[in-house]
Structure formats: structure tokens, C-alpha cells
Write a structure and sequence with these properties.
614 residues; two-stranded antiparallel ribbon; mainly alpha; 2% strand; globular; 24 helices
Amino acid sequence: MRALFLSIISLTGWATAFEGTPPNQPVESPEKHWAFKMPVAPDAGIDELVDRKITKSGLKKSPPASREELIRRTTHAITGLEPTTDEIARWSKDPRPDWLDLFTNDLLARPTFGERWARHWLDVARYADTKGAATTENEEYPYAYTYRDWVINALNRDLPYDQFIHRQIAADLMELPREELAALGFLTVGRSYQGGRRELVIADQIDVSTRGVMGLTVACARCHDHKDDPIPTADFYALYGVFDSAVEPKKLPLIAEPDQSEGAQAFFKEREKLAHAVHDFVKSVLPEHTDPRDILDFNLPPPINNKLNQTERNRFRNLTSAVTSLEASSPYNPPRAMVVRERPKPIDPVIFERGNPGARGEKIPRAFLTIFREKDEVFQQGSGRLEFAHRLTDDRNPLTARVWANRVWMHLTGIPLVESPGDFGVQTREPVQRDLLDHLALFLQKNSWSTKALIRHIVSSRTFQRSSLGSTSIDPENHYLARGNRVRKDLEAWRDSALQISGRLDPTLGGKPFIFDKAPFLPRRTIYGQVRRGFLPSILRAFDFPGSEEALMMRTATTTPTQALYLMNSPFLHQEARAIAANYPSIQEIYQAVLKRAPSPDELAAATPWIANA
């Protein structure tokens, strides 16, 4: 039966029969793969490149979207919020021909831009406020929020994307203000592993730095040469030596001066009390133990640590966890950066045969990926981490600008140009809009790697401004961009919009995370909610929020009965609905506030008795 089924597919060409969908391409040699060639500047801009493809395909372009649609579309894409009624009225009647450019600039200047786009990046960075289920210690990362806040700030000030990457890989090796050290959370907010397996932590750092930035699955070469891409196992371990040459210090650096208020003094006193309890316990078991110079140093000397039995060790962990919990919860705990520091001497890596750290094989130098370097080119400066950061964005790397341009397009329009935003390897077929992708990548580089400039460029195009109405029969996946895409609000957008419309949204930037599913449901933006790795609250699980175990480039979008049931029975939404009803006494006003339109006669008739009985 299986053979018959495969024969039918082969004879009918069913697998590639969808019109408008590029046929699967045979795997080509790496040297010829489109993504491994440097971008070539096309002879036209966004609209002309797209229009050529549409004309050649015989498709019909959708008309431009209305001003009201563009106002809502652009506001959602850039800020994740709804335009106000006043904004719609003002910009709908703006007589200037460049009104959308001006409106876009206004949106990009708002702090809400950084909050929206930081969440996109935090998916890539597998951000969470906890270590995960594998840890035997306190699960909390008390200072993960400083990385989240750094990303928001960096995007709001339009830090050039190449520097955005450099600082997240090697801020400690650059001459920067101390608050920039928070960028290193990119390397350190990953999950913990049972038994503290450092080789898996380093593999995770390699994965987020390569797949997250270059769209290459380098971590697949940990146990053997990559099955498809030109990434030998030696390349993985060349980078392994780079990251193994850095360690996370026990005492993290301050990135702001401590508060001197009464509350802060009470916090410091309580923390010191808990810290003394840790060392007092150890001394009660092993009298030879003495308090360290820094009472918060819980790194016991080996002669002491090795004498603790399992029961005593568990008690020790519980006492240190109490200190961590206090640091995570207290608003008076001064912020610190989750950094890495170079070892005094870099590690010379060896290949772990079949990925087994106990099977040490050939010694190799620390270096960049073979396909993008000269034969004998190796890192020369210390561990090579800063050199690695620069190689990610230099003019010999054809991937990084393309990968970011692809994701910016995806977040603005709803679909990526390259279907696999985290994999540009040889199995990834050349996109229909290859010329457009190269144009966007080169535009990004020529405009000082400015993400905001790239967003302006895309939003100003007629392609972005097309209506989503149009036939989907020929090109259902919209590869040719003949129409706009209908984009469903994600969790963050609908939750933040509900708070905005109810009038309860708290505009405060940054700070420690709040608990999602705990009444009275703080009215902060969703990005500030606690992400508990491995134990996501039900609201996050129901609406496709990433689990944070690994880097994620594009979320799945599901439609399930659970989502509808959750929304119908959500105490949070009931609270926002009551606030909206209190702010807008009539049905007409509620429709204007929520849907930005008047109710139809049928809607008005149906809502009147419902509101009366609510």
C-alpha cells in the first residue's frame, strides 16, 4: 500500500502541484547554495522587484488598503497596540502626501516600539526568568530582567544591529559603560541541565549565537559532521573552545548604584541575615568552616564541600535559595548583569568523539566556520569571543544581514521571505523574492545596520500597503506578495490591547517580572510577565508562547477550543471587560473603543439585552 501511494504521488506530481508554490529543489553543493553567496544589489527597489514577479506570474495585485487599515496595521506591527480613536481621526485626514512616513516615525519614537520588538528578539534569545525544571537549586534568575530591559532600551535607541549582536556576545571585552554588560544575558539566560552539564550549556550558547544570528544549525555538528551543511564537527568544537574559555562569575557586577532608602536598608539587612544563616549552618556541621570575606559567597572550598552528605547538601541549597528568592522578589535589590568573564588562560579545545566529553579526540584551534574563513585563519585575541562577534557581521559573512532582514519583514508583514527563519542551510530552497531579500539586507548594511531605517523602508512601500483582500486560489501562501497578509494578534498584542482599551495599561518601562495568573492581574505589558521555564502559566501555554528551552525564530499559530474557552472564562478578561463597560456607558461607545467602528443594527439589537443583564 505504501509503495502504491508513493507511486501515485510520483506519477501525479501531487507533492508540488500547488500553483504559485516554488517546486522543491535538489540539494546543491554548498559552494553554489544561494544563501552562502554574498548578496548582490538588484537594479530596483522593493515595489519594482515585487511587481516584476507579479507580472511574470500573471497574478493580479490587490488595491491599496484604506487609511484606517494602514493606521491599525502599522500601529500593531510597530507597537503591538491599538491606535486610539483620536489618532485614527487625525491621521485619516492628514493632507500631507507623506503622512504614513510621518506616522511611522511617530510610532518608532515611542517606547512601546522597543517593548514590542524586544519580545520578538527574546524568543530568539530563549529568554526566561528561571533556570528550568532540571535545577536542584533555586530556579530563579534574579537578574534576568536586566537583559530584557537592555534589549528594550537598545531597540528604542536604535542601536545598530551589528553592535546589538557584538555586545550580546562580548560586551565584557569592549570598552562600554557598565550598564551595557547586561547584554551578556544573551549567553547566560539559557536553561540549566541536570547534573550541571557544562558541555550542554556551551552547546546551547553556540546554537543561540549561530542559528539565532546566522540561521545555521551549527549545533547539529556536535556529535558528527553536519548531515547537510558544510559544517564539520571540528567547526563546532572550534567554537566550543571560544565559549568554554568564559565562565559565569559567582558574584555578578552591579550596573546601577544601590538605593539608600529605608526599604533598601531593610533589604540589605535581611539578606545579610539569611547569608549568615547559610554559613552558620555549615559551621554547625563542620566547625572548621569560617565565614568568607564576602558573606554572600556561597562557593564552599572543596575540603568543606566534599564533606557534606546529601541531607546536609540539600539543607545548604535550601538556605542559599532563600537568599536568591529574596533577591529575585525585592524591589530594592540593586540590578546586576548576568555576565561571563574570560578565564585567565583560554581553553584549547579538542573534538569530543560522538559528543562524549569523556572521549577526547583531536586538538583543534579556536576559529570561525570553515566555509567563511581562510584555511589557516584562527582567532588570535584571547579566547576569540570578540573576534567571533565581529565575524558574525563583517563583510565576509553573507548570512547575518539576510537573516535579520528576513525576520524584520516577517514581523511587519506576517510571513517571512525565507520560510525557515532559523535555517538558511542547503536544504532551504531559494525564496521566490530572493532579489528583494538581498535588497533589504544591503539596505540594512548601507544604513548603518539601523533596524528602524529598515522598518521605515518597508512600511513606505506599496507592497506593505496592499489590502489583504484578494484571491488566494493561485498563490495561497502569498509568495509573490500580490496582496497583504491577514495577521492574527499574538498573545502579547491582544492582552496588551485589552489593557489599553480598558484604560488600565501601565506605561512604566522595565523592572522586575510580575506573575501572570495571580489576581489582581497587574496591568503591565505582557513582556514584563514572569517567564517560568518549564512551568508556563496556562495563559501562555494556550496561546503559543515559546517554552524558552531553545532559541525560537518563528512561533506556531494554532486555533484550538482551549483558547476560546480560556477567553470566555478568563478572570483577567472579565476584569478588563468590566473596566471597559465602566469607561464607555453605551454600546456605540464600546464598539468604537474596541473595534473602532459603529455597531450594525443586528449587533446593536443583540448587544442591548446582553448588556442590560450583564
